[in-house]
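so the lab meeting is tmrw and i was supposed to have these ready like two days ago... anyway. pasting both below. for each one the top line is the aa sequence and the line under it is the structure tokens. i havent really looked at them closely yet so no promises
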Amino acid sequence: MAAAARARATAVAMKIATYNVNGVNGRLRRILEWLQETAPDVVCLQEIKTTDEKCPAQALASAGYHSIWHGQRSHHGVAILSRGRRPVERRRGLPQSGSEDAEARYLEAEVAGIVVASIYLPNGNPQPGPRFDYKLAWMERLIAHAQTLIDCGRPVVLAGDFNVVPTDFDIYDAWAWQLDAVTQPETRQAYRRLLSQGWIDSHRHLHPADRIYTFWVNAHAFRRNAGFRMDFLLLSPSLAPLLAAAEVDAPFRGREGASDHAPTWIELEEPGR
């Protein structure tokens, strides 16, 4: 067993995770705990709920992680962490369409030759209404920008909380949530259009028949495993052959003071193995 684990470790080039932390400063202890125990190479955070000036960059640096931030006071916000190497920022926010968008939901960087985006897609509730309209418009902007990333031919990972439940198989009870924005036909259709560009849904790719959840609305739901799958790591086509593992650190959701999401991660092998 130990020999197999060592062999696997040498084959893994990069472990990339996404984690909606639901307040980075309030849950910093749990985040540092998770980083220490699991040692991902790159981490995309969502819903950090703080400004850039108040982000815990120093605490993360002490844990070995460089970080870049696209924050917003009390709401939204995304970040990218990288262990031992500095992420090089490429884009902060999606290309604009019409009026200025003040919500901090997209951050893109390059890490070790891979383009990584941290995405916090709008929830869209209540629907119908202005928030749902904003969600769908934001998805259109994401789809347009994602196409440019596909067209550039670079290896890319789109990671984050997409606030989309792709199918009824990805939620414990579709009927109970049939009016929620994350399950609406328009939401799902937009997500399918994104995938049709060639993106690979890592967890569904490796686990096509498994019930996988990444979000539980409260502790009681977690104990019953009444969850949703809406945190994804989408790979550009060139990365798909390198996908070695895709898992969810579900036990971290059960710890005291945890986020309502669990860390979700993939491992990529070195090219040519």
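ok protien two:
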Amino acid sequence: MIIATYNPDPGQTTEEINDLAMEAENYFLDKEDVDTIQYSIGGENPTNPGASNQVLFFVNYDKETEEFDKERKTVLDELKDIGGKGEWGYQDVSASGGSNQITLVVNGETMSDLGPVVTDVTSLLEEQDDLTNISSSISESYDQYTIVADPEKLSQLGLTAGQIGMELRNTGTPPVLTTVEKDGEEVDVVLEVDKKTYENKQDLKDTTIQSPLGKDVPLSEVTTVEEGESSNTITRRDGKVYANVTAEVLDDNVGKVSGDVQAAIDEMELPDSSEVTLGGVTEDINESFTQLGLAMAAAVAIVYLVLVVTFGGGLAPLAILFSLPFTVIGGLVGLLIAGETISISSMIGMLMLIGIVVTNAIVLIDRVIHKEKEGLTTRNALLEAAGTRLRPILMTALATIGALAPLAFGLEGGALISKGLGVTVIGGLTSSTLLTLIIVPVVYEFFMKFRRKERSE
């Protein structure tokens, strides 16, 4: 699916937007790979209800469309060729509801402070090869005319500033006189008047207002018209105005691209009143990584406590936990071989490994402790346990690896649980299984010698 958007230029009429949307619809209809087209104009846009004239296209393509990634860029370029004073863009939403969009939040004291910084940030993103579809939320400005009344002249003609306002108000939405009920629905009753529009500043000055004496007074005689600009919308957060600058990441490694962008931002010279921070998917990733890191630390602590209670001591469980560092090594090597990046899925795989890999070490050390109680030395108990437990350890590891193989080869058919999880678990389980039979026995024997030395002293 391609979700295309059009943000109109301030002042564009609904008729102009409708004509442009129909041209875009015909453009999509001419494409052979397009199955269905749905578009809306105005507040029906669920992603931005406040956009009264924004156009939103949902275009479904055939699943067999070739080089779909290139099609998105082609569509954006060709939509821009259709025309329109506003800006064409698209939203890139994955099947999992996530996005590869990074967002830079620019804060400032005033809109005048914000504008130059947003321009610099946009230029910085345009220099990055891995970014496309760069846009900012800073609103464009309307031409604004402020009518300043002369109280002295108004009083001479028996007029007030309020009368001027009421007279000019007739050019907009007519006031509601009353509300009646018809067929169970409330209907507004308005007085139909001829609508007046202004083509330019002089047209506004030539507008006449009737005084109480019946004299038509031109607006230019009792007021001055000042030109200026006013932003379409002003957004605030924590008492400051802000704007978002967004860009789509072409590379699969969103974290690396975000890091490069952050490094470039750190080198920017910003005014004291302005601040630029990374948001969007980068903020989500950082928050998720922090939460998963805390979950992994808690998992290690819980596993250790359970083992201490089960084994009745702290040294044997500590030796078992020495199998965990090698899962990280195996997981990272697996990701490197498969060409995958460290993602949320791979971190979930790491969390799973904490519970999976210790089982092999538990099976081994439990056998060792039983043999020690039967009178064998630690060395002989380790040798006997390694030979006895080798087969079940390999069987459980191979069964788990086989179960995750379809996921690692990308045969899962979903986007929420990705290939990275399977690769991480398989790599970590493989390395920990092989090294459990070497590292854990060595560490366990060292701890037992240390304990015997303390007892002898």
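from a quick look at the 2nd one: The longest strand covers residues 240-249. Residues 44-50, 94-98 have pLDDT under 50 and may be disordered. will dig more after coffe
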